[in-house]
Each structure stands twice: as C-alpha cells, then as structure tokens.
C-alpha cells in the first residue's frame, strides 16, 4: 500500500536526555517511556550508557549489546571514565547503522528518546558525543532535555553550577533546550523558577551566603539573565509521573523552534561543509593534474641512443 503524503512528511522528534549522575535521568527515561506507551505513542528508545548496570526500560538500540564496557577497560587498560569514552567512540563508528534503523521506524513513531552516560562531560564534550548529536540533529528535529536534581539545587552555589553547565551544553549543541527539574515530589522547583525570573529574589538568597563565592555568583547571575529568557523550564517527578504533560508540551514547542530557527542554520552549515569538501577535492585534483604534466617530461627515441 502506498504511503499517504501525511505519512511521508511525518518525522519523529529526537529527545536527548542529559543529566549529571544522581539526577534521576534513567528513572526519568523510564517514566517518559511509560507515559508515551500509555498515550499509545510508542517511542523508539536508544541507550548510549555502556556502564549502566540495570536498565529499567526496554531499549530498541542498546550500546551494551554492541560494546562490552568492562572488556574495553581490560583490553585498553582504562579507568571507568576512559572505558565509557572508548566504548562510545567504538559505537560511534557504527552510528550510520543506528541511523538506518531509526529511519525505518521514522514514520511509525513520534519520539526517539536517547539516554546518555551519567558522566555528563563524556557525552557533551567528546568528539563521539558531538558526532552523534550532530548526526541526529541533521536528520530529525532534536531537543536537549537537561535533567536537574531539584533537592540538591536549593543552595545558590549548586543552582548556579547547574545553570552554567546547562548554558555550556546549550552553546555546544546549538539545539532547543529544556530545563527539567526532576524529583519535584521531594522539593518543588518553584524556587528555581523565581531565581531565574526575579533577580532580586536570587539576590536575597545570595545575601545569606557570606563566602567569597557570593560576589562571584552575583556577577555570573547578571550574565545568565539573557540565557534564562530563552529557556523552557518544567518541573517533573519521575516517581509519580507529575509534570509529564508539561514536559511534552515543551518538547512540541521546542520542535517548532527547531524547524523555524535551528534547521535553516544546520542546513547552511552542512552546505558550507560540503562546499569546503568539494573545494578541497578540486584542489587536490588540480594539484594531481599539475604533477602529472610535470612528470610527463619529453619522449626520447631509444633507437637513436643505441646507434650513438
């Protein structure tokens, strides 16, 4: 049966779940998966964390089935972080195959959700992490969901640390960004929303901190004001499921933002890269042709040389 135009145009949204160890990222992934199943919107799930012991959800593609993290550590004599990075590098060499699997399911699912390593810097600042992110973002609308442990963010210093990290990831990935305050069943995220929207409220919280960090955080909070204005903020509980509807509303809004603002820039960069590659190939070809002309030299009649 031929596909209808609406089916041909359907593209899933890729949700990259990024968060520090202990933020509840994997439990959040489990809740997102369960929520989508309950809505009859079965997602395509990819696990990129080779060191996770127990995955509380079923992944369509699991890095652990391709790369044995512990064997990589033994073979290359690496520590835990080095093992995760090397496993991710090895997996990235086969990522074109992953993309082909996703492509086969693209018309039958609304969301591709991706779980990343808890060692956040390994994914966000490695070459393999950048390749995976850029490849997915070039093929489908992509959104970054940055998971935050709300109870651990109640102090201004920890909050500012999280915001700076989020800011760095936003400018590294250059993708629509959602701040997901997890564990709101323990502590409400309203304090964080106030700190981001009302500078004076954050100043009052800083006033209680007499350490040398206070003045530094004060300066940084002024710099982050513009960053806050372009963020989507939601509060969720991976345990109770509260806030899931708000999260997917933010994802859908971010998809529209991707289509309108990010996709044209991504396409421009891809074309620019292709043009540079073509120019490089042409330059090499011209150099080769020049070298062939030089090495050709002048033909000599051998029979004449023998007579002499």
Automatic annotation (TrEMBL):
Entry EC no(s): 3.6.5.-
Keywords from the UniProt entry: Cytoplasm, GTP-binding, Hydrolase, Nucleotide-binding
Domain of life from the UniProt record: Eukaryota
Renumbered residue ranges of the record's region Disordered: 286-308
SUPFAM superfamilies per the UniProt record, alphabetical: P-loop containing nucleoside triphosphate hydrolases
Protein location: Cytoplasm; Nucleus
Enzyme class, UniProt record, top EC level: hydrolase
Cited function: Small GTPase required for proper nuclear import of RNA polymerase II (RNAPII). May act at an RNAP assembly step prior to nuclear import.
PANTHER family: GPN-LOOP GTPASE 1, XPA-BINDING PROTEIN 1-RELATED
Record family assignment: Belongs to the GPN-loop GTPase family.
Oligomer and partners: Binds to RNA polymerase II.
Protein name: GPN-loop GTPase
Lineage: Eukaryota, Fungi, Fungi incertae sedis, Zoopagomycota, Entomophthoromycotina
């Amino acid at each position: 049966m031929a596909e209808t135009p609406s089916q041909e145009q359907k593209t899933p949204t890729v949700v990259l779940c990024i968060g520090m160890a202990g933020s509840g990222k994997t439990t959040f992934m489990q809740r997102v998966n369960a929520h989508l199943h309950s809505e009859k919107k079965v997602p395509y799930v990819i696990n990129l964390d080779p060191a996770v012991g127990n995955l509380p959800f079923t992944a369509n593609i699991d890095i652990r089935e391709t790369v044995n993290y512990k064997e990589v550590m033994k073979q290359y004599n690496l520590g835990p972080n080095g093992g995760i990075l090397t496993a991710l590098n090895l997996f990235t060499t086969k990522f074109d195959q992953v993309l082909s699997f996703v492509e086969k399911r693209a018309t039958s699912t609304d969301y591709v959700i991706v779980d990343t390593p808890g060692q956040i810097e390994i994914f966000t600042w490695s070459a393999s992490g950048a390749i995976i992110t850029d490849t997915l973002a070039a093929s489908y609308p992509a959104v970054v969901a940055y998971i935050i442990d709300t109870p651990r963010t109640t102090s201004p210093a920890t909050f500012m640390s999280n915001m700076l990290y989020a800011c760095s990831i936003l400018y590294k990935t250059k993708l629509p960004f959602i701040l997901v305050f997890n564990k709101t069943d323990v502590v409400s995220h309203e304090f964080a929303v106030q700190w981001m929207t009302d500078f004076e409220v954050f100043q009052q919280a800083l006033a209680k901190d007499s350490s040398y960090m206070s003045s530094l955080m004060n300066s940084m909070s002024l710099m982050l004001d513009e960053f806050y204005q372009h963020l989507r903020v939601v509060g969720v509980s991976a345990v109770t499921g509260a806030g899931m509807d708000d999260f997917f509303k933010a994802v859908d809004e971010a998809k529209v933002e991707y289509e309108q603002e990010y996709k044209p820039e991504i396409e421009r960069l891809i074309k620019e890269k292709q043009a540079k590659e073509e120019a490089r190939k042409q330059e090499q070809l011209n150099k080769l042709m020049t070298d062939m002309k030089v090495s050709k030299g002048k033909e000599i009649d051998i029979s004449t040389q023998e007579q002499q």
